[in-house]
Design goal:
Strand order of the largest sheet: 2-1-3
Radius of gyration: 22 Å
Number of helices: 5
Order of helices and strands: HEHEHHEH
Structural class: mainly alpha
Oligomer: single chain
Strand content: 5-15%
Number of strands: 3
Helix content: 40-55%
Distance between the termini: 74 Å
């Protein structure tokens, strides 16, 4: 018989969200950036919500980074973050979009031009 995997929490993830399975803000993605809001911490926040606020005191984190720090699934952190955004305790902004790819033809022409300059 094998033991419990190291680092795995004893409490199921759905209990950290109060049994809520879906975030109230479905636009929160894995790479959504979370930061602390200006509101005071109200009494009665679940321990996982307080842990998320504590993690954000060091600066902004992506949802996936917060999940790794809290050792919770990303889906649970999305639910927690959505609740904290609803309470104005956390700010969420869309992930930074990846840079657009350059046209390969343009890159080839620039490289050819640089080679031509090198040989003159």
């Amino acid at each position: 018989m094998t033991g419990r995997p190291a680092g795995r929490p004893l409490v199921p993830a759905y209990l950290s969200t109060g049994g809520v399975a879906r975030p109230s803000r479905p636009h929160l993605e894995r790479l959504t950036v979370l930061a602390l809001g200006d509101g005071p911490r109200p009494a009665g926040l679940p321990p996982a919500g307080l842990a998320l606020l504590d993690a954000l005191e060091g600066g902004s984190l992506a949802v996936v980074e917060a999940a790794a720090l809290l050792r919770l699934p990303v889906s649970a952190v999305r639910v927690l973050a959505a609740d904290l955004v609803d309470r104005d305790l956390v700010l969420a902004r869309a992930p930074i979009p990846p840079a657009e790819r350059f046209d390969p033809d343009l890159l080839k022409r620039v490289a050819d031009g640089l080679r031509a300059l090198k040989h003159t």
